[in-house]
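Record 1 of the preview.
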Amino acid sequence: MLKLAFRNIFRNRLRTALTLAAIITGVVSIIISGGFVEDVFVQLRESTIHSRIGHVQVLRSGYLEYGRRDPARYMITRPKEVVDVVRTIPNVQAIMARVNFSGLANNGRADLPIIGEGIEPDKEAKLGTATTIVAGRSLRIADAFGVVVGEGVAAALDLRPGSFVTLMVNTSEGALNMLEYEVVGVFRTFSKEYDDRAVRISLPAAKELLFTQSVHSAVVLLDDTTVTDTVTAIARSKLEPLGYVVKPWHELADFYQKTEALYRRQFGALQAIILVMLILSVASTINMVVYERTGEFGTLLALGQRRHQIFKLILLENGLLGLLGSVLGVVIGVVLAGIISGIGIAMPPPPGSSSGYTATIVLVPRVLVAAALIGVLAAVMAAVLPARRASRLPVVDALRHNI
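->
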């Protein structure tokens, strides 16, 4: 039956070519669209990680729930303890401490509410590959009274490298403290909302500004994003008994989670639409083929073939046709994806960002398998009703088509 089915699909080469073209087009469409969506996820993920979040963050237990109201109460008082534990975990590339604060920035003429971070500049340089310095230079550990400001802060307060800005914050004891800093650079990250309010100073300067030796978080940079969950599990087993909470980047990146969920649903809907279109386009060809072969099916039934064998023969023919179309579609899709990725697709800034990027087509085995399965499934599903109708034909009526 397999040999007969394989020979039958090439009896009418024009119709076979048209059916294969429809299946190949659908498979290629899924590969290209799915690869584009995967590239969006990859670029958004890496931009989120390397802008400021990092792969993993270690925080004091209760900080995420209550830290905004009383940040001084939920600080890591022994940061070296955390660093020593995390350093022993494989795949850890760097660990950096941070102090968070909020207050006002004043340029002598106007105030602007800001969110600030005290950072370790040398280590942050390894993490912040998605952070662009648009003016001046990066912060250095020697900049005791230097500050880098977000692009939005610089525009709002008319700041540029060499300008001076005064930061006013409340210390952990509730007192008001203010210090003047020289702007050494202006930066841009993936998030425009963050750039509109963010300033960064060195960690020693932040500790002096807040009168504290504690930190709010320890940010971990890994050498491979795919091991994030493994490292998180190890860190939790070691640090949670000590009163710390360990969070991977995807639990902290709310924008990424919502964007991924949206795109996954859109891609699922696109796959369903392509499947329906393939079924309709293939079904019309199959109906014509089955009608023209009615006499042939009547002859087979007259010679002793069972009705379920006729049904299986038609499904097998179209299954082979779908398999051939899927294989060709995957090959063409992979080649086309390579060509498009080599050229690149210039994309505008995503929502909430101020810089565009170049998109590519990421080949993911899961998408390739899904595209191939949809091609085969569409061909088989399109053949079910025609095969059922052909297998139930009265033998006498079917033989009349030979006259």
